[in-house]
User: Which sequence fits this backbone?
């Protein structure tokens, strides 16, 4: 590792690595925009480079951790290291664009991209490792992402399929992880000069494939959580030497002795040319008088009984994938030949001649979009019982059938009212 620091800077840098890890979270504007709802004991303070980022403190109380609060299960925020928020802010993805997060797991930056896009446009979140791709998919679901696909593809296969396709690409590359040093001993034990060299070679390959997929005039953000010049500045200069049709817009290294964070490097690169505006796909008009398939009739029956007017739930974008119905992002290309874990927002499953809504749909809905809802307090016992999978009494004004469960006004799951009680449909794998 080679660092170019001001006089006395290296000592300050080493001292910073011995300090306590900085904690932060990022509010999810898709689910909530009222920071005042957050517990006062977390002592929230703004992260300067991300509008939705906040430092938090719990003063050592394990029961007060944000990861244990019902808002976390509801996707109201994502617990994310503060400096890791900087690359997406720099990339500045916009509504309506085609965006790729090429090395996306576990999903912090992908869900941040979706928030910046306002669920408008199409987001490809790719992860080459299948187990990590599943975690990525779960986090996309928890955060109520509607415009995102989760795919499990090798970067070479992906670049062959999508040359010149994306408006913006994030390459948060696998690295030697020096920015993880004060979060535990594992990163320190695994570090070696050989690992740095191996990471640098892999990063170069990934960046070259990303360059193929970027539109003319498109923006590429390369980021790492390492301080190694070989993986950071030198990687950027080497890339520009190989790709003279790219230029450097900005490069920044956030160092842990200068900011409240573990550290991050990013470089913003632009491909030459004029970037065309995103072309919105026009939904194919349904053929009149055709007989609707069974899944369509079953879904419409559910929607007529349970849903209010939901503007984003466009029927032309609903499709059957396996036994489940999904809402495709607008303008989604053919998925043929892709390894897809999440082809959009899962709406539900067809089971024995009936439609059963998916947990993902509950997390994507807002309070006013359901005809029946149940309001639970984040401070009450009933929300804990619900998260444990228990049956809870139904309120008097709740009619029979599916109900959207809310915690302080934020959707968290489904229940089904029958016989004066709410049968619990919170997923078994998520129960506490």
Assistant:
């Amino acid at each position: 590792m080679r660092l170019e620091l001001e006089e006395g800077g290296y000592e300050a840098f080493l001292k910073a690595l011995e300090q306590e890890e900085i904690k932060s979270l990022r509010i999810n504007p898709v689910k909530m925009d009222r920071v005042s709802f957050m517990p006062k004991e977390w002592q929230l303070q703004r992260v300067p480079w991300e509008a939705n980022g906040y430092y938090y403190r719990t003063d050592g109380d394990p029961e007060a951790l944000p990861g244990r609060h019902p808002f976390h299960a509801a996707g109201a925020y994502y617990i994310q290291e503060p400096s890791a928020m900087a690359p997406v802010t720099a990339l500045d993805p916009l509504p309506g664009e085609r965006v790729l997060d090429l090395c996306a797991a576990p999903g912090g930056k992908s869900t941040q991209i979706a928030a910046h896009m306002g669920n408008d446009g199409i987001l490809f979140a790719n992860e080459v490792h299948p187990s990590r791709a599943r975690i990525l998919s779960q986090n996309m679901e928890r955060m109520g992402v509607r415009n995102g696909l989760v795919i499990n593809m090798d970067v070479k296969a992906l670049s062959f399929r999508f040359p010149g396709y994306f408006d913006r690409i994030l390459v948060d590359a696998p690295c030697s992880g020096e920015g993880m040093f004060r979060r535990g001993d594992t990163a320190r034990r695994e570090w070696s000069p050989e690992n740095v060299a191996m990471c640098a070679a892999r990063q170069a390959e990934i960046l070259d494939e990303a360059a193929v997929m970027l539109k003319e005039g498109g923006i590429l953000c390369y980021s790492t959580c390492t301080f190694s010049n070989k993986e950071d500045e030198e990687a950027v200069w080497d890339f520009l030497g190989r790709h003279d049709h790219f230029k450097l817009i900005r490069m920044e290294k956030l160092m842990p002795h200068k900011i409240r964070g573990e550290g991050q490097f990013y470089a913003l690169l632009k491909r030459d040319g004029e970037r065309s505006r995103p072309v919105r796909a026009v939904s194919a008009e349904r053929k009149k008088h055709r007989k609707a398939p069974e899944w369509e009739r079953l879904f419409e029956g559910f929607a007529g009984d349970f849903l209010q007017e939901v503007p984003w739930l466009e029927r032309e974008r609903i499709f059957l994938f396996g036994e489940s119905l999904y809402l495709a992002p607008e303008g989604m290309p053919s998925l043929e030949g892709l390894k897809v874990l999440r082809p959009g927002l899962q709406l539900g499953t067809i089971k024995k001649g009936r439609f059963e809504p998916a947990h993902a749909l509950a997390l994507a809905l807002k309070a006013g979009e359901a005809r029946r809802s149940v309001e639970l307090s984040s401070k009450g016992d009933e929300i804990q019982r619900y998260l444990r999978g228990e049956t809870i009494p139904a309120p008097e004004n709740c009619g029979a059938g599916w109900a959207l469960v809310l915690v302080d006004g934020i959707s968290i799951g489904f229940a089904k009212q029958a016989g004066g009680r709410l049968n619990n449909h919170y997923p078994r794998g998520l129960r506490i």
User: Anything to note?
Assistant: Confidence is low (pLDDT under 50) at residues 279-290. The radius of gyration is 23 Å. The CA atoms of residues 28 and 186 lie 30 Å apart.
